[in-house]
Amino acid sequence: MSDPATGVGQATTMRTHLCGRLDASHVGSRVRVCGWVAKRREHGEHLAFVDLRDHTGIVQCVVPGTVDVRSEYVVAVSGTVRHRPVGTTNPDLATGEVELGDCEVEVLSVAEPPPFAVDDRVDADEAVRLRYRYVDLRRPRMQRNLRLRATVLGALRASMDAQGFCEVETPLLWAPTPEGAREFAVPSRLHHGSFYVLPQSPQLAKQLLMVAGMDRYYQVARCLRDEDLRADRQFEFTQLDLEASFVGQDDVLAAVSAAVTRAVEAVTGEPVPPVERMTWAEALDRFGTDKPDLRFGMELRDLSEVFAGTEVKAFAAPTVKALVVEGGASTSRSRLDAWTDRAKALGAKGLAWFRVGEGGTLDSPLDRFLSDGERSGLVSATDAAAGDLVLVVADEHRTACTVLGALRVEIGGRPVGEGAFRYVWVVDFPLFDGMDDEGRPQAAHHPFTMPHPDDLDLLESDPLAVRSQAYDLVLNGWELGSGSVRIHRADIQGRVFRALGISDEEAEARFGFLTGAFRAGAPPHAGFAVGVDRLVAILAGEENIREVIAFPKTQSGADPMTGAPRPLAPGTLTTLGLRALPPPS
Ligand code: ASP
Q1: I need a labelling partner for 427 at 20 to 30 A (CA). Which of 31, 202, 247, 369 fits?
Q2: How far is the CA of 315 from the centre of ligand 1 (A)?
Q3: 134 and 271 in one domain?
Q4: What number does the ligand 1 atom closest to the CA of 206 have?
Q5: Ligand 1 centroid to 218 CA: how many Å?
Q6: Distance 468 CA to ligand 1 centre (A)
Q7: Domain that residue 538 falls in
Q8: Ligand 1 atom closest to Cα of 200?
Q9: Which atom of ligand 1 is nearest to the CA of 481?
Q10: CA atoms within 13 A on the CB side of 85
């Protein structure tokens, strides 16, 4: 196999070397390189310069006479490697000490002028980039991202193999599974009116593989979810999906840590320190989120005791939480108003703010309503110093935490690539995540997650208090993946389905195959799925996972290159037993 870093093995019948790998050690050799014309300059009638680009970089070719090539023509250049004349070396280029002299240029393909310059410094509109993705991917940044992705996938696979996991492919044409996302449906030609569903994840398939005795399974799995797209979400994405039998939470955390560590080390060359662990309740309380970004402090402070017996109506709530913005006292009024609007949009009734002055004095519209004890309590409980700003939300515990947690990231957050990689395991998630409109609990992870053994008795009496054996891996504020210990007993699965408002009949109709499998002898099992796109994006310093996916969709779910999604020909619809409604006007 070839090695993209060294170019070993990449000599072919068409070329002897790669452009970006030529250096002073090749001086004197006659070589032949192939690639795309990055730039062409003429020096009078006697000399032309062609910068030739392949996936390894650019080399300057000096051609006697003129040469009839333009940007993005595909050419083969034969030339002699020589030192560049004194004063013309280019330290920005890996090949900047050398050039090819006496070049002969053979045009392999002509090219239309590119829709945008193939240059990392040139910005093009997203839709245009995706329309001409094959040109966009020629850019060094995109080449680097896709290769980094391959390195990550290779390392993840190597780690799973080394840990005794067996790669198994599971079907893309599958049945609905309740993992919370809207699913893509595929009409059946042979069974008109019936549909397959593209898997949101191989969740049930991998659990069935455990019942089947595979013991340790993994798959680099494509998952499909028909959800609104955003920076960290595409319809299709890739997970390192895994499951193991006769294991508990700690075994899964260790296996995933090993795989992720290997991938990160393969990219950064830096060892990854042991991943710390935090309960969901602690993450919420300290950082206002189950995805804490630990690259910076600004931990939430609790003022509930300070305001326990308050006369101030705005603070009469079960929980009063504070966020200290260091040096934030000079924040403008319009900025504070914008943060207040933001807090309200996030579900708070309001946002109180206090500018801290010398000697613990407070400047705030609410200051005159506070008692002396509350005033000093606010300053001491937050450790605020003169010049700081204290933001306060009083509400139900979860709302107070999450609103300030969001403001913490918006005010103090770091760009993706900045700072160290800070991993954290968040464990002990609740089993249910609030109630739906009809008063039924919603599964926080998915309905196949095992309740915490100490809370099993609460399943019927106080479902929202039940903790689960679910865990997330979080990196720099991004959820890198989640997993859980699974239910492997039909009786407990039945109780959880019932708690979710799924009747026994419905459960039998939809998941009878799973509970049936449990009755065939199911080992205790647990698993996880790592979001590969997010991991690669963070390692590449990219804000949007589209930058690490070869052919992503736009924000509106379209592919400007192929035109997908597109209407089907009427004949095809008939074959599938479908009739399309006119698009909504
Ligand atoms: N199937 C889950 C997901 O896609 C991961 C897991 O529980 O293993 O989020």
Answers
A1: 202
A2: 39
A3: yes
A4: 8
A5: 12
A6: 14
A7: 127-276+523-580
A8: 4
A9: 9
A10: 2
Mean pLDDT of 495-512: 90
pLDDT confidence tier of residue 2, bands split at 50, 70 and 90: very low
| CB-based pocket (< 6 A), ligand 1 | 201, 203, 482-484, 527-529
Same domain? For 510 and 531 the reply is: no
Which one of 385, 413, 441 terminates a domain?
413
Q: How many CB atoms lie within 10 A of CB 217?
A: 26
Q: Which of 368, 387, 413 is the C-terminal boundary of a domain?
A: 413
Q: Which of 200, 446, 488, 525 has the most ligand 1 atoms within 8 A of CB, as the residue to mutate?
A: 446
- Pick the atom of ligand 1 nearest to 449's CA: 7
Alpha carbon distance 515, 513 (integer Å) = 6
Q: What is the DSSP letter of 453?
A: G
Is 78 within a domain?
Answer: yes
The mean-pLDDT minimum among 297-306, 416-425, 518-527 falls in: 416-425
Find how far residue 196's CA is from the centre of its chain: 27
Residue 147 is assigned to a structural domain of this protein: yes
Which atom of ligand 1 is found nearest the CA of 223? 4
Which among 445, 472, 474, 534 is the best mutation to test ligand 1's pocket, defined by most ligand atoms within 8 Å of the CB?
445
Q: Would you say residue 406 lies in a domain?
A: yes
Is 98 in the same domain as 42?
yes
* Whether residue 42 is found in the same domain as residue 54: yes
Distance CA 203, CA 446 (A): 9
Question: Residue 52 — pLDDT band, cuts 50, 70, 90?
Answer: very high
Contact 539, 253 (CB under 8 A): no
Do 169 and 89 lie in a common domain? no
Whether residues 189 and 237 fall in one domain = yes
Please tell me the predicted confidence (pLDDT) of residue 9. Answer: 56
User: Within this chain, do residues 168 and 62 fall inside the same structural domain, yes or no?
Assistant: no
pTM for the model: 0.92
Nearest CA to ligand 1 atom 7: 483
Rounded CA-CA distance 467/319 in Å is 21
Same domain for 31 and 55, yes or no, is yes
d(CA 297, CA 302): 15
Residue in this structure with the two tokens 């006007």, named with its chain if needed:
585
